[in-house]
Amino acid sequence: MEETTLEEFIDFQDLPVFGDDVSAYPATVILSKQLDADKFKYAQFKDLGFDNLTKKVSELAKEVPLSALGTGEWKFISETEKDIRNKVQDKGEPLSDVIGEPLVGIKTGLNEVYIVDKDDIRDIVNEEHEKDLFRPFLKGEEVKRYSRPENEKFLLFPYEKKDGELEPIDLNDYSGVAGYLRENKESLAERYDIKNSSLEWYELRACDYYDKFEEEKIIYPDISKVANFTMDDGTFLDMTGFILDSNSNFHLSQLNSSLLEWYLSIECAKARGGYLRFKTQYMNELPLLSDQTDPQIKDKVEHMLNLKESLNSINLNIQDYLGNYSDGKTLGDLYTPAEGLSDYVLSDTSADRDSLRIGGVEFEERNTQLILMASARYKPEDSENIDEDELDRWGYFETESVPVMKFDVDEKLKPLIEEFVSLAVEEADGFANFRESATKTNSVVDRLEELTLPKLEDVESGLEKFIDNREEAEELESEIQETDKLIDAIVFNLYDLNEEEVETVLDSLDTQEDENASILEKFREV
Predict the structure, then answer these.
(1) Is 127 exposed, middle or buried (0-12, 13-18, 19+ CB in 10 A)?
(2) Is 354:381 a contact under the CB 8 Å cutoff?
(3) Which residues contact 289 (CB under 8 A, 6 or more apart)?
(4) Which of 118, 242, 315, 462 is the most buried (most CB within 10 A)?
């Protein structure tokens, strides 16, 4: 190594270069005897969908200064990215100074006793006041960007406040909860953190900041592909979630921004699948702007929280709208086959293809016709010469979606076909007479033909309500996306980035071109 210089570093991350059964982080390193070089090429692959490695490397490669490879963790960033990182660091202050260190969620030592659902609470308590001992509870993975938590689980919190201090409850005052805890006393008392301490046998693990969970705060998961920070009031988290002692919309806007997500993607260790690990050591140093009087961004964040709350309150489960109904027509009664259908795998049977089944469905409207598009999944023969990277972890290959059925039907029937067929394919296993797997005598198309719709008059009013709610949800989704982009643009401006630097950050995050263009347009306006 002393007589060579790094020329290229081709990073395949955790892609299955050696097959799905091999867990590895492969990379190709090319060295050169040119000792006076000060840069090398770095190419990071997101997938294995390429025919020519050299050409793909040329498309992906960026120049990285050799100075980036110190004795610590290597950071593959270009000179431009390095300058942006330094600018962000200079503009902000460490999060630990602005807000304080992140606080990890609680460890009960026996979740199967302390974590319950709503029905369990009804069974446990004897008196109304006992319900006050249960707190909303989340796992880190349940925390979603700008979404106020909706809780299905609850934590039994065996404490009450006396003179402003938390003290373990007197079991004599809570007969139902006391009985439940005593049923599990042997397991509770054997917890390591309890039997080697002065705590009561039914207490949770010692924690100095239980009160922080009761307050308004920012919460986030420990591992996530993107920034998933939100505001919360009163929810407890498990060990896979963190809280920040801030109720500032201004802080929340930065934490969810593309800029700081990009910064963390450089600084954070990544887990398998490209997930970011939001460890305290990285979060502590995250450059954050101190809270400011900035009504524009604070109002936008509040609007975003309200939009997400409105969206999450809309029920988009079509089954809840259909009620009781009689069977109507089958798809076989209503469709005409698409041109060339017999040439597609969907017309084969399991005698032709091993483990043949439907992949998925989608719909298009062309002129006045509704078109059902579908894909098929099967296990290919060796003779088909399908690359391993085109197979899923179970060895299935999925075809492209192709037109299968055409429907010339009444406008009222179109949404029923579109929504109900999608539901039936998702449910499968005989729901609405539909099964996903072909047989030796029935093709995937045959299976679709047998799919039975509800009688339109039985579900018409419910279907109209569903469509209205779906349209409302789509409008909210659109407004959420636009508001998120505007917040992004404002944050870029607050950190004094110029347009070229904004473009570099967005390109590094691999966001879609139209999304980049929209954020840049809003950035110019702010």
Answers:
(1) exposed
(2) yes
(3) 91, 92, 93, 98, 250, 254, 494, 495
(4) 242
Which residues, in sequence order, are CB contacts of 152 under 8 Å at separation 6+?
A: 117, 118
| pLDDT tens digit sequence for 130-181 | 999 999 999 999 999 999 998 889 999 999 998 888 999 999 999 999 999 9
pLDDT tens-digit series, residues 318-375: 999 999 999 999 999 999 999 999 999 999 999 999 999 999 999 999 989 999 999 9
pLDDT tens for each residue of 80-139: 888 999 999 999 999 999 999 999 999 998 999 999 999 999 999 999 999 999 999 999
The token pair at 144 is: 């979603």
Q: So what's the pLDDT on residue 385?
A: 79
Amino acid at 124: I
Question: Residue 64 pairs with which residues in a beta bridge?
Answer: 40
Residue 40: per-residue pLDDT? 72
CA angle 363, 341, 350 (to 5 degrees): 100
- Residue 438 C-alpha from the chain's centroid: 32
Q: Which residues are paired to 360 by β-bridges? A: 375
Strand ranges for 76-210 from DSSP E: 93-94, 103-104, 115-117, 134-138, 153-156, 159-162, 165-168
The residue type of 487 is I
The DSSP H or E segment spanning 513 is helix 513-525
How does DSSP classify residue 126?
S
Q: Is the pTM of this model over 0.85?
A: no
Tell me how far CA of residue 274 lies from CA of 145, 212, 226, 254, 270, in angstroms: 18, 31, 10, 21, 6
Q: In what order do the strands lie in the sheet with 216-221?
A: 103-104, 241-244, 216-221, 230-233
The pair of three-digit structure tokens given for residue 467, joined into one six-digit string: 């469509």
Residues paired with residue 221 on neighbouring β-strands, in sequence order: 241
Query: Which residue spans within 251-410 are E strands per DSSP?
Result: 270-271, 275-277, 287-288, 327-330, 335-337, 354-366, 369-379, 397-398, 402-407
> And the tokens for 24?
């590895």
Supply the DSSP string of 306-347, one letter for each residue: HHHHHHHTS---THHHH-S--EEEEHHHHEEEPTTGGGSGGG
- Dig out the tokens for 133 from the structure: 């001992």
Q: CB–CB of 416/432 below 8 Å?
A: no
Q: At what angle do helices 456-494 and 513-525 cross, to 10 degrees?
A: 50
Amino acid at 249: N
> 263: buried, middle or exposed (CB in 10 Å: 19+, 13-18, 0-12)?
buried
- Predicted confidence at residue 22, as pLDDT, reads 58
